[in-house]
Amino acid sequence: MKECLRRNAPLDRQGTHTYDRINVAIDGPAGAGKSTVARLVAQKLSYIYVDTGAMYRAITWYMIREGIEPEDQNQVNQNVRDMVIELIPEKDIQKVLINGEDVTPHIRSLQVSGLVSQYSKIEGVRSRLSHLQRQMALRKGVVMDGRDIGTTVLPDAEVKIFMTASVEERALRRYKELRDAESVTLQQLEHDIAQRDRLDEGREISPLRRAEDAILLDTTFMDIDQVVETIVSHCRSHVDGERNHL
């Protein structure tokens, strides 16, 4: 697999030193709001946002379209090795392209959501994407969200956040996202999210878990602005602390 992260937003400002940029890892279960929060945090800090979940979803959508079952791991791995994946940061969304095709409109469907855990647990898929994600973060100034960023992908990230919320709250948030696009019930989403939690926490490769040095942030009773400001405050405090030690 080849990768390309198009950096539409500049990382280097005149007079900015390396110690002014850090990497931020945001992990958590399905429906916790990681992607929305991570994108807004990146905007506040003038960082680059990397939605790792979108990468796994894009691969899942591609495999579904091509009729490649997750049980056929050799075929899955071969296709992952050969594909070109591009992430294009934009103001309100991060576009995902596979082999030049914009797949962004398709990757949040219920079908993809139901199967993404099956493809993402394949060792060849996970190791390949983890490597690409580390490459994207080499220059610092990256906010990356997923399920194993702070534990596996970027264990040395300067700020690690583990976002969570009750299953009921996460299902309600996802319901509000999907109800205009798909026929779905809140009860179904609660079941799906609880099942996804079990799959993510129980997989052998990079299971969902909080890094020992991650800040636990329960967002059940917080709005998006509060969550974003809390994380941005942690990031700025870290940068200020590092600068004061120079």
TrEMBL record:
One of its GO terms (cellular component) is cytosol. InterPro entries: Cytidylate_kin (IPR003136), Cytidylate_kinase_dom (IPR011994), P-loop_NTPase (IPR027417). Keywords: ATP-binding, Cytoplasm, Kinase, Nucleotide-binding, Transferase. This is Cytidylate kinase. It comes from the Bacteria. The keyword Cell wall biogenesis/degradation does not apply. ATP binds at residues 28-36. Coiled coil: none annotated. The lineage of its organism: Bacteria, Bacillati, Bacillota, Bacilli, Bacillales. GO terms for molecular function: ATP binding; CMP kinase activity; dCMP kinase activity. Its main location: cytoplasm. It is found in: Cytoplasm. Its EC number is 2.7.4.25. Belongs to the cytidylate kinase family. Type 1 subfamily. CDD domains: CMPK. The gene is cmk. GO terms for biological process: nucleobase-containing small molecule interconversion; pyrimidine nucleotide metabolic process. It catalyses: CMP + ATP = CDP + ADP; dCMP + ATP = dCDP + ADP. Residues 24-235 form the Cytidylate kinase domain. Pfam families: Cytidylate_kin. The keyword Cytoplasm applies.
